[in-house]
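Reader question, answered in our methods column.
A reader sent in the components of a multi-part assembly and asked whether the whole thing could be modeled at once rather than chain by chain. We filled in our standard form and ran it. Here is what they sent:
COMPLEX SIZE: two components
ENTRIES:
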Amino acid sequence: MIQYLSNNHEVVLAALRQHIYLALLPILIGFVVSLPIGYLGVRFPWFYHPLVNVCGVLYSIPSLALFVFLPVILGTKILAPANIVVALTIYTVALLSRTVADGLRAVDPIVTQSATAMGYRRTRRLLDVELPVALPVILAGLRVATVSNISLVSVGALIGIGGLGQLFTRGFQLFYLEPIIIGIILSVLLAGLADLIIVLIQRAVTPWARFQRGGGTA
Amino acid sequence: MITFEDVVKIYPGGSTAVDHLSMELPTGKMTVLVGPSGCGKTTSLRMINRMVEPTSGRILIDGRDVAGQDEALLRRGIGYVIQHAGLFPHKTVLDNVATVPLLLGKTRREARAAALELLERVGLAAEFAGRYPAQLSGGQQQRVGVARALAADPPVMLMDEPFSAVDPVVREGLHREFLRLQQDLGKTIAMVTHDIDEAIKLGDRVAVFRQGGHLAQFGTPQELLEQPVDDFVAEFVGRDRGLRSLSFDTAADLPVSPLTDGGAELVLDEAGRPVGWRLGGVVQPTAGVFTKADSLRMVTDLAIMSPVGVAVRVGADGTADGLVRHHDLVDFLATRRDRRAAEQEA
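And here is the structure of the entire assembly that came back:
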């Protein structure tokens, strides 16, 4: 295995870089897109259920099918990384829009009411009160989406672009175990690391959340 | 002054929450809106800061119709204390209190300085400033809620069942502190409660509502206790309203008997302060003493609790200067009743 790594470290590193890029760019785009969509699901109550249903349907599309059909719809080349980015952005939006809506809906109405009674206008109330209070729920959704994306990127290897997934296809083609094991280990480490980073961010930006449950003075 | 002019609120669906309400909440006083659930008291309160819009009629604050004013600006000028405090869970105690000053465009530093001062005012030590609401007890949260409402020094305050979520002992303490605070600040306050005892204790004026959004009676607590306008108010105010109405009269006019008329020897210390009653060679402590400023209710209580049935009055220096026996009290209450009856006829 060490042997394989030292001979192929450039290939492995390139695969890892691509994997990170393909998994995390959709997270960023998806997060930014989901915030307004999720908010609409709260602002207009009639929109919530259609939103949840559409998100459910989108998320249930098999990733491979999406990877294959997107070039047809978008007019991109079959091997373009954009296909993976767009597909994973769709999954991210499907997961996060609902989470954002649920997080905002879970804000205690007493809190929003008292904000209104203090003289908050709608936009400032959203940014200063509702979003921050919903943040623990939203960040929990972000963790799921991130880990899910990191595992889904590998599927892209079946159409030729899949970050660490390429190590799997290579291993299968050559009847060679090392790249497969390295691919699995790096995927898991990457997912674990990304998850840890989000948890640390969560602790830093929502220091109040750890007092919420359990209660009492800490 | 907050004026309700023939205010009606009918919710979509046709239920009448407030039915032709007219009343005036005097400046610098605390008016308590009280009644059973569904009587429209909370709806009335929320129409003052436009959280609810009336179907018809007008509400004026110091002569200005609230309907013409920008909602957010209006609300920043009205303190609001909500049930369960409604604090922002993600902000520290200090930043919760600094909310309205910040909305009004103060710098973070100014707002926090004002907030710190307010925290002290409501009896919370500076060490609480950096904590989050979830780290506080219910009573402490409610104090923060009051501090937050007062932070921008609004002339008008609305309080929606502010003390109902805390246990009775804590509530008692909050009441005392709040009355002291209000004595200093003299805000125009409208407060909602379903607890008539709280209304009578805290209110300068009490508005009793009945089902269907009708105002049943508006008056001072004493008027409510002594002259309820109908059976509904009488029953709502409670059975022992006669005894409770004694809380509103001081013992200033109550005649006293000489110290020797107690039926037993009143033992005094060398300074002349009462120690107790000598009964069969043993000195039993008096149940307490009263001054001219105390209420008739307290005198009655002392007379009942005393081992010899006599309440002891003391002067400002604590020396005993007179006694009130059971029958003195009964005679006084009889003349008080006759005087009241004559006043009512006049």
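What stands out: Chain B is about 35% helix and 25% strand. The first helix of chain B runs from residue 41 to 48.
Send us your own complexes using the same form.
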